[in-house]
Amino acid sequence: MPCRINSHGPAAGKFAPRKWFARLAAIAVAAGLLAGAWFVCPRHALAQSDKPSSDAMKEYAQGNKMLIAGDFSGSIPHYQRAIEKDPNFAMAYMNMGLAYRNLKQYGPANESLQKAYDLSDKVGDKDRIMITANYHSIDTGDLDKAVDAYKRWTQNYPRDSVPHNNLGVIYGQLGQYDRQLEEFLEALRLNPDSVIASANLVSAYSHLYRLADAKTAYDRALNRKLESPKLHYNRYGVAFLESDAAEMERQSAWSAGRPGADDILLSPQSDTEAFSGHLAKARELSRRASESAQHAGEKETAAGRELNAAMREAEFGNAAEARSRIESALALDSTQGTQILAALVLARAGDSDRAQKMADELEKQNPFNTTIKVYWLPAIRAAVELNRQNPSKAIEILQTAAPYEFGEPDPAPEVGGFLYPVYLRGLAYLALHQGGAAAGEFQKFVDNRGVAINCPLAALARLGLARAYALKGDTSKARAAYAEFFVLWKDADPDIPILKQAKSEEARLK
């Protein structure tokens, strides 16, 4: 998933001992973008009516330097110290919010961006545009307003790379990957040494299944000595799509033991194991990913790792284990991103009433959030209707999600993990005994591998195809689809409920 940037990140390297104004100008010139990350551009950071103190500016500049280098965790203490020295430092709040967002810590990200927005009357025109754009793209989630603000930014300041990166992130959320690629390429043209844009470009090419281009983008970044966990995270996804186990191992080894990076690669490894039915291994990797995030003080990230594991348990038929994981996640964190994923998994684990209440509360608290309205709420409520034996109602609810179902939802489960509305619609058609329609939905996972990547739903979609063909009475295709699923899960853990069901179904085919 791509990263957002803000306009206040520093360039790599040393700064001459000059005034902080000159230092920030240099920072701005070199500011870049990161893989699935949001970013900042520090050129006008001092356009505040109340100029921050030199001590605050020193901390701010150091935070920016680390942000641009992709060290999101390391940047946050510097922003916090800058704010302690100058509580009205709007741009420090904004960049800290972006650092939190890139760590998938949505609660503190929203709080920081809200504070920046509240202080935006103290900054100049450009900074106000930047704060407004990031506020709407991340805090309110109103993507239409965010796009308008980013476009105004590109028009008024055509040499800035940051708004192009962040527009690319939004287009990815909307499933518009061609437009996403255009923006990331423009961001990188304007700032060739941007770590964030470089990593984002790998992701964009992957989603379009242009794997050779994705590898070229990765190699280009390394040749320019650009490094970040997200760059390796996205390269891992490319290796999975090419069934390149050696490369996946190399990318995983890169992150091992690195503070702030270890869990980023452990979690997709858990999905890869689950993709092949190795649930015990997946559980262990998820446990390590969660513990790594907790050790780094990233409770919301740790909760996300737990919920990613809970999703697998629910879809594999282990409802009790899924609910246990949900409670563990909610004990760690209860912010918006955690609530969204918890509500969906609760619905898939059979707790319809609680999921419905959480969905209603999310809708009430986020009246303008595009992704919640068009992706998550339809998915949660459709899952509830499936539990209530109302598949027709589920399909009706999912109509809202249809234009956006290939997008990268926020919060994103993992390197893959998208197309949830597609999967639920396929299940609804199965429940209605409409085999042809169900097959059309599950086939989308096969046809869009670059979006689903190693999401376990993509593996289960093969089983969905088998069930759909069986409903159509096409025994030959059904047997072939079951065989494909069993090859994929050839050494899967034998006690997985959905595997047992599949074997029983295949045995009854005539």
Can you put this structure into words, describing what you see?
The chain has 510 residues and is mainly alpha-helical. It folds into two domains: 240 residues, Tetratricopeptide repeat domain (Serine Threonine Protein Phosphatase 5, Tetratricopeptide repeat, Alpha Horseshoe), CATH 1.25.40.10; 197 residues, Serine Threonine Protein Phosphatase 5, Tetratricopeptide repeat. The chain is built from 27 helices and two strands. Strands 1-2 form a two-stranded parallel ribbon. β1, α1 and β2 form a beta-alpha-beta unit. α2 packs parallel to α4. It is globular and about 80 Å long. The chain starts with a strand and ends with a helix. About 7% of the residues have low confidence.
How are the elements arranged and paired?
Layout: E1 3-6, H1 20-30, E2 36-40, H2 54-68, H3 72-85, H4 90-102, H5 106-118, H6 125-140, H7 143-156, H8 162-173, H9 177-190, H10 195-207, H11 211-223, H12 229-241, H13 245-255, H14 262-275, H15 279-295, H16 299-316, H17 319-332, H18 336-348, H19 352-365, H20 370-387, H21 391-398, H22 420-431, H23 435-447, H24 449-452, H25 456-472, H26 475-488, H27 497-508
Parallel strand pairs: 1-2
